[in-house]
């Protein structure tokens, strides 16, 4: 009989071994149950003992793996930080939460990449602009060399033809209107050809600028003096507002004078029945890029830089919208019948560009046009 | 009135001839032309002009060298020399009052009126 059961019966019968024969089969049954329970308990104990060992081992393994992961994460952090040192603050901010750290880090990296791409795109555009500018300068030089060479060869025959026509005009005493007109037209054609060559030579001389520190107001006044006769003839009033305190600008005096004269003469032709020309000069410190013009200008004039500006406004009929974007094209003119070569504004723009400045010509809201010139100090 | 003698030194023969026709037609001038720079000095010594129109770009000898020869010779040093050239532009000449580097200049093409005006300005009556 099961020992535990024997002890319990003894305790229950107060030491007596004599048990009623009738309950013996029941007690043996209970004894079997006790034995079976003991076997089960020892089995459970053994199994529990095994699990606990396994758990300890598994725990140990997990700890080792966690340590390995931490080492990898630390290594990754150090690599990422060395890749983008400016993002260092992130490692301090979110060192407790690696997932957040990585998400922030990677999103920041993506932003950085986007910014880099944008900067690269801008740099490429700038490079392209510079390249175009260089091509333009190179083109001018080629035109220059060509013009210088050709002009000498063309001017000589022109000189001969002009004197020849003048001689014939004197000698042919014909009253035939057609003969008189033919000679007159020939003379005009020579003048026109000469004017075109002069225009091309102006292109030619653009690569040679004589840059000095100049007062823009003096150049405006001198240019106005040179066109006075023409203005008086067309009854054009001139009003000036030239700020005395403007800084000197680095320019080629003769070339910029040519620019002003060209713009003044265009206004004079536009106001052949009279009008008013207003010329202003002032200086301005650029606060924000993009405020005073397009990208090109922003590239030329940096925030904080001072520029000298001249505005020339007339009260003429303005420029028709459909030709506004063509006015700077070489040989584009609306006055070909009056001897216009179409080189004037094209030369003006080239001169301004060679000075790293900018020119804008717009229709005024109240009528007429306003030309604005921007110069570097 | 005695006609003023004008010597034209220019390799462009046609142009010289046109100048000659026009100037002589005015009745005030006697013109001689010379198309070889090398012969300019000899022509000036022989013709004794009141004024010389001198081209700059000539195939045999450049105009400024001819001017130097003329200035160095006792017989020709006082003769006024006017450069007549297609090298400069009219507005360049005008802005310098017609004088560049001490010499009067005339830019081609030029009208007969301007040529006569130039002669009268640079010669004694």
TrEMBL record, chain A:
Residues 149-377 form the Histidine kinase domain. SMART domains: HATPase_c, HisKA. InterPro entries: HATPase_C_sf (IPR036890), HATPase_dom (IPR003594), His_kinase_dom (IPR005467), HisK_dim/P_dom (IPR003661), HisK_dim/P_sf (IPR036097), Sig_transdc_His_kin-like_C (IPR004358). CDD domains: HisKA (cd00082). Residues 48-79, 106-140 form a coiled coil. It holds the Pfam family HATPase_c. GO terms for molecular function: ATP binding; phosphorelay sensor kinase activity. This is Histidine kinase domain-containing protein. It comes from marine sediment metagenome. The lineage of its organism: unclassified sequences, metagenomes, ecological metagenomes.
UniProtKB/TrEMBL annotation, chain B:
The keyword Iron does not apply. Pfam families: Response_reg. Residues 5-123 form the Response regulatory domain. Coiled coil: none annotated. Keywords: Phosphoprotein. GO terms for biological process: phosphorelay signal transduction system. The keyword Phosphoprotein applies. InterPro entries: Bact_response_regulator, CheY-like_superfamily, Sig_transdc_resp-reg_receiver. SMART domains: REC. SUPFAM superfamilies: CheY-like (SSF52172). This is Response regulatory domain-containing protein.
């Amino acid at each position: 009989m099961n020992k535990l059961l024997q002890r319990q019966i003894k305790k229950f019968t107060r030491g007596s071994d004599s048990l009623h024969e009738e309950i013996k089969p029941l007690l043996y049954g209970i004894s079997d149950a006790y034995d079976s329970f003991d076997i089960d308990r020892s089995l459970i104990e053994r199994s529990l003992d095994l699990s606990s060992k396994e758990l300890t081992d598994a725990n140990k393994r997990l700890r080792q793996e966690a340590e390995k992961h931490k080492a990898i994460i630390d290594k990754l952090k150090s690599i990422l930080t060395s890749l983008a040192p400016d993002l260092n603050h992130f490692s301090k901010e979110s060192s407790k939460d690696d997932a957040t750290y990585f998400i922030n880090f990677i999103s920041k990296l993506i932003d950085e990449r986007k910014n880099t791409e944008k900067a690269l795109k801008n740099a490429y555009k700038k490079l392209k602009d510079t390249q175009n500018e260089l091509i333009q300068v190179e083109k001018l030089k080629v035109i220059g060399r060509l013009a210088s060479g050709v002009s000498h060869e063309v001017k000589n025959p022109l000189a001969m033809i002009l004197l020849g026509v003048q001689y014939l005009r004197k000698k042919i005493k014909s009253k035939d209107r057609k003969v008189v007109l033919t000679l007159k037209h020939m003379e005009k054609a020579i003048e026109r050809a000469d004017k075109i060559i002069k225009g091309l030579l102006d292109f030619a001389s653009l690569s040679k600028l004589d840059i000095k520190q100049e007062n823009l107001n003096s150049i405006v006044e001198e240019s106005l003096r040179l066109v006075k006769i023409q203005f008086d003839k067309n009854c054009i009033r001139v009003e000036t507002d030239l700020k005395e305190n403007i800084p000197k600008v680095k320019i080629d005096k003769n070339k910029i004078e040519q620019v002003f004269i060209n713009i003044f003469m265009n206004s004079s032709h536009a106001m052949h029945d009279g009008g008013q020309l207003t010329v202003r000069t002032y200086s301005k410190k650029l606060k924000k890029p993009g405020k005073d013009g397009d990208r090109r200008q922003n590239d030329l004039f940096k925030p904080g830089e001072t520029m000298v500006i001249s505005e020339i406004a007339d009260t003429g009929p303005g420029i028709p919208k459909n030709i506004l974007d063509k006015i700077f094209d070489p040989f584009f003119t609306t006055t070909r019948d009056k001897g216009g070569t179409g080189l004037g504004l094209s030369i003006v723009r080239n001169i301004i560009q060679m000075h790293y400045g900018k020119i804008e010509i717009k229709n005024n809201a109240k009528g007429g046009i306003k030309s604005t010139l921007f110069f570097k100090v | 009135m005695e006609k003023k003698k004008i010597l034209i030194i220019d390799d462009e023969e046609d142009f010289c001839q046109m100048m000659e026709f026009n100037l002589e037609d005015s009745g005030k001038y006697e013109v001689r032309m010379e198309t070889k720079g090398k012969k300019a000095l000899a022509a000036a010594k022989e013709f004794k002009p009141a004024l010389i129109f001198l081209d700059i770009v000539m195939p045999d000898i450049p105009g400024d060298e001819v001017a130097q020869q003329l200035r160095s010779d006792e017989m020709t040093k006082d003769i006024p020399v006017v450069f007549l050239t297609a090298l400069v532009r009219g507005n360049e000449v005008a802005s310098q009052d017609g004088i560049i580097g001490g010499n009067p200049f005339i830019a081609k093409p030029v009208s007969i009126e301007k040529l006569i005006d130039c002669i009268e300005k640079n010669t004694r009556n």
